[in-house]
Amino acid sequence: MGASASWGCTYARRISSLTACFESGEFFIAEKLGIPTLFRKFWNQYGGPTQDDHPWHEFAGVRPATQVEISQGLLWGSMQTLLERANSITAWESFPK
Q1: How far is CA 35 from its chain centroid?
Q2: Can you list the alpha helix ranges (DSSP code H) found in the chain?
Q3: Cα separation of 93 and 47, whole Å?
Q4: Are 32 and 92 spatial neighbours (Cβ–Cβ below 8 Å)?
Q5: How far is CA 1 from CA 5, 7, 8, 27, 84, in A?
Q6: Domain ranges, ordered by start, for the chain
Q7: Taking a C-beta distance cutoff of 8 angstroms, is the pair 55, 35 a contact?
Q8: Radius of gyration of the chain measured on its C-alpha atoms
Q9: What is the rounded CA–CA span in Å between residue 77 and residue 64?
Q10: How far apart are CA 71 and CA 65, in angstroms?
Q11: Residue 38, pLDDT above cutoff 80
């Protein structure tokens, strides 16, 4: 049980560190983190752009990759890499000025 509690504290600290980098603690632009966007899914679902299109994503959580995702190469990096990328972002503007 001690190892589990320890892992939980580490996980919570990492999530806290990650969301501290996000706009208002929850919004991010996936491309700036080097992770896939949801655009293609919604583009296909609605047959093109809608008035709700924007580059922002809302943080819902992270989870370990499944064995299937690992075997298919559907990985985008480690939690450490994600934290490093988030910490390197100085501004979340969606469009260059």
Answers
A1: 6
A2: 2-20, 30-33, 39-46, 67-71, 79-88
A3: 27
A4: yes
A5: 6, 10, 11, 34, 30
A6: 2-88
A7: no
A8: 16
A9: 11
A10: 10
A11: no
For residue 5, what pLDDT is reported? 43
Q: Where is mean pLDDT largest: 5-9, 46-50, 88-92?
A: 88-92
Distance CA 27, CA 86 (A): 12
Read off the tokens for 24.
């208002």
- How far apart CA 5 and CA 8 sit, in angstroms, is 5
pLDDT tens digits for range 40-85: 777 777 777 677 777 888 999 888 888 898 888 877 788 899 999 9
Structure tokens at 43: 């583009």
**Are the beta carbons of 85 and 21 closer than 8 angstroms?**
no
pLDDT of residue 3: 40
Distance (Å, rounded) from C-alpha 43 to C-alpha 80? 31
